[in-house]
Design brief:
By secondary structure, the protein is of the alpha+beta class. The chain is 29% helix and 25% strand. Strand 2 and strand 3 form a beta hairpin. The longest helix has 15 residues.
């Protein structure tokens, strides 16, 4: 995943976009992507903080790719919000 993200103070990326990038990375690498809950725990273990502004964001990190990966319907909860995992 390191080739897809970088630590940049003051930057933020939505939780949904970061998880989608993670799933895409796993798919391309032939790996099984963990659940959103497991992904969130891994981010916490890596000391990447998460905040809720209008939706959830991971702080001081950004995606290196120029366009965000496709977001799947199962990444959105029934209220139309991002799943906070």
């Amino acid at each position: 995943m390191e080739e897809r993200v970088e630590n940049v103070a003051g930057e933020k990326v939505s939780a949904i976009a970061l998880y989608a990038a993670y799933r895409e990375y796993c798919s391309n690498a032939g790996l099984s992507a963990g659940s959103k809950t497991i992904f969130g725990r891994q981010m916490s273990q890596m000391s990447i903080s998460r905040v809720k502004i209008s939706s959830f964001f991971y702080m001081d990190i950004k995606l290196k790719i120029s366009s965000p990966p496709d977001i799947q319907d199962d990444d959105i909860n029934q209220n139309g919000d991002e799943d906070p995992f």
